[in-house]
Structure formats: C-alpha cells, structure tokens
Specification:
The chain is an alpha/beta fold. The protein is built from eight helices and 21 strands. It folds into two domains: 192 residues, 3-Layer(bba) Sandwich (FAD/NAD(P)-binding domain); 205 residues, FAD/NAD(P)-binding domain. InterPro entries: Auxin_biosynth/cation_transpt, CHP04046_FMN-dependent, FAD/NAD-bd_sf.
Length: 419
C-alpha cells in the first residue's frame, strides 16, 4: 500500500464514503485514469465491524460477492461470510488496487459552485468537478417516538448497537421488528437460551433452500435481481420495502417464527403504544405470519415455473405447512411482570444528508435520482437499496451500479489515460 495521502485542494471526482460502494467506483475511476479521492470519515468498511452483531453472517451466498476486478476468493462459494470475514475480504479488495483513500476525513458540507462543488472537511477544503455520495442509505438509527414513554428501568438498544446476548443485562428481552435484523437478533438471543418476546412488523420471508438449491441462486438465474425499480409493480415505493428474512448462520437456514413460538418465544403484533412498563399491540400477529408465509410460497411458485420452463431436472419438495398458529392475539405486555429488562429496536434507519447542501432531495429526505444520477450535473449517489434494481443492495449489484456511475463520470471528465 502506498504512503498516506494528503488532502488535495482540487480533484476531478470526490467520492464520499469508503465502503464497498466507494471502493467499487474508485476501482473504475482508477482503471480509467480519472483523478479522484475517496474520503472516509472513519476507516474503510468500518460499518461491517461497528454496526453488526458478533454472530452476524451474510444473507447472500458468497458466490454473489463480486466487486469490480475482485470476486470472492475463499473456499466456500455457497457459504456465508461472517462479519469479520467480510471486513477482511474488503480489506483484500482495497489492497488489490490501492485506491486513493483518506481515512479519518469527514465531509462537513457539500455545496455547488460555478465549476462544480466545494467540500468542507475535517482536513480542510476541497474543490471537485464531480462528486459521488457513497455513504449508503442507513445513517441514523430509527426508534419510534413511543420509546420515550418506556420506564427508565428498561435498557433500550438499537439493532445497530446490539452485539451479543451476553452484552445485555440478565432477564428477558423484547425485540421490536421482524425484518432481517430483528428476526436474526431474535434467533441469536433464542439460541443463547434467553427468554425472547418479538413484536412483528409486516416483513416478508423466504426459504433458504428449495428444490435442491439456495433460493437466491434460483432467483439470480431467473434474473430477479436485474429487474429495475421502474419495472417493478411498486415503482419507486419499492425502495422503502423491507428485505425478506432468512439467515446464513450455521450454513444457512430458514427463520421460522412459528417454530420459535413452539419453542417458547412469545410473538406479538405491531407495537402501538407504551406507558411505563405496559405496552399495547395491534391484533396483527396472525396477519403478519400469514403474509410472510405467503410471500415465501409465492417465491417457490416462481421457482417452480422457472424450473418447468427451462426443463431443469430438480428434486421435488413438499410445501411449508404452518407448525404453529396463534390461539389469541396478545393485546398488551407488562414488561415488569414478564421480567423483561431490555428492548432491542430493530426498526431500521433514516437517511441523514444534512451535510449535502444541494437541492436534490424529496420530502422524506431521500435523494432523487435515476440510476444514481441526479438532476444536478456531476452529482451522483451510489450504494443505495434499489438504486437501479433489487440487486443494488448486494455486492454484485453495487459493482454494476458503480460501473454505470463511473461511465457517467467519465463522460464529463477530461480525457484520461488508463492507469
């Protein structure tokens, strides 16, 4: 790796964010010989260390881990990398082409100028002709307002700060939210022998394996991850959707909340109110469990149709039959009476682009763009879910989006000689 860089005063392209998206576009810019710098407020790929729990594994199989010029290089292409393995893999990616990264440099503001953009950073000022905002879309942990009404005795932790069952106070735990993080954290606590209560949201689920293969492998072959947000029936609203829950833990398996209930996990519908230690829930438990199962079965229907169309010789498999059905809809929970000492909020994140002082945002604070390109010439976003397709949230999708953004950057940059 080359010697540490100093912040230049001027650059053709400033890339803000040193995660997989920032590294991927840097690879393309370096390959094209385009002058640029990557500004990272902490360390490269730090989110994989700082915002994942100890037992975290990828949900996507390792074979889908493909970045520009660098594919998964381990011995388990059908396995699932752990948090530490992902961070190490991204470290090897960085070393493979030595991008011009400045770590510990936070961008405080981004403004438009006559010639491009002005960036004020903790290391000084920088002028850039073009900018790529590659900070992802999950910035600030989102916690519902009713959290403020909980008893002070209750320890509250957001999923971004959850590390392990052992790091929490003794006692039962309530997890709020059943997306990927919530479902996996509930399983982590359950496997550790903790008493777990789980308040569900309307998250879908998917089988891990079906008819002899990982479902994600089937879906990739079917081109599902290539469907653009414009082609999707939900349109741009799909960018706000919750991911299907499953896990890569222990080689990968389904997460069946009904099975957890059989084993003692307490399930509830949507959390609606809190008053001290007493919580109220909407009667949505049955609806949410049935919805998650219906999505899983619809995915299997699509896989069946693909197998039939392509004439693939694949083993048949019995469909899922619910192993547990709620006898009643719990309307309330007294945290003190249940011995609950901790609430884990798996309620997602909200964007925070206050430092981007350019008018490219909608009313909810999300950037408006098409395939990452905004209406302001030279300003791009990268690394967002559904930036272009469902695959945009995966390593391979980030790679494709980075290639497109780099092509648009190159079209506005002075002619350069590839490195």
């Amino acid at each position: 790796m080359s010697a540490p860089l100093d912040l230049p005063s001027q650059v053709e392209v400033a890339v803000v964010g040193g995660g997989q998206a920032g590294l991927a576009v840097s690879w393309h810019l370096q390959d094209r010989g385009i002058d640029h710098v990557v500004l990272e407020r902490a360390t490269v790929a730090h989110d994989w260390r700082d915002r994942r729990w100890d037992a975290f594994t990828l949900v996507t199989p390792n074979f889908q881990c493909r970045l520009p010029g660098f594919a998964y290089d381990g011995d388990e292409p059908d396995g699932f990398m752990t948090r530490a393995e992902v961070q190490a893999w991204l470290g090897r990616y960085r070393a493979s082409f030595d991008p011009p990264v400045l770590e510990g440099v936070e961008v405080l503001s981004l403004r438009r100028t006559e010639d491009g953009f002005a960036l004020r950073t903790t290391a000084g000022d920088l002028a850039a002709h073009q900018v790529v905002v590659a900070t992802g879309g999950y910035h600030v942990p989102s916690v519902p307002a009713l959290a403020a009404s909980l008893s002070r005795r209750i320890v509250q932790v957001h999923s971004a700060d959850y590390r392990s069952p052992e790091a929490l106070p003794e006692g039962a735990v309530l997890v709020v939210g059943s997306g990927q993080s919530g479902a996996q954290i509930a399983e982590d606590l359950h496997l550790a022998g903790r008493e777990v209560h789980l308040a569900l949201g309307r998250a879908p689920r998917s089988a891990r394996f079906y008819r002899g293969r990982d479902c994600i492998a089937w879906l990739e072959d079917m081109g599902i991850y290539d469907v653009t947000v414009q082609q999707h029936a939900s349109g741009l609203a799909k960018r706000e959707s919750t991911n299907h829950y499953m896990t890569g833990r222990a080689g990968g398996h389904d997460i069946d909340l009904r099975a957890f209930a059989l084993e003692g996990m307490r399930l509830y519908g949507r959390l609606t109110a809190a008053d001290g230690s007493v919580l109220a829930f909407a009667p949505t438990l049955t609806e949410y469990l049935d919805h998650a199962d219906s999505v899983m079965e619809s995915i299997k229907n699509d896989i069946d149709a693909h197998i039939a169309r392509a004439g693939i010789d694949a083993p048949t498999e019995a469909r899922y039959s619910p192993v547990w059905v709620p006898e009643e809809e719990p309307a309330a929970l007294d945290l003190d009476a249940a011995g609950i000492t901790t609430v884990v909020w798996a309620t997602g994140f909200r964007p925070d682009y206050r430092w981007v002082e350019v008018g490219v945002f909608d009313g909810s604070g999300h950037p408006t763009h098409r395939a990452g390109e905004t209406d302001v010439p030279g300003l791009h976003f990268l690394g967002l879910p559904w930036l272009t397709t469902w695959g945009s949230g995966r390593f391979a999708g980030v790679a494709r989006d980075a290639a497109h953004v780099a092509e648009r950057l190159a079209a506005r940059a002075p002619a350069a000689v590839p490195a």
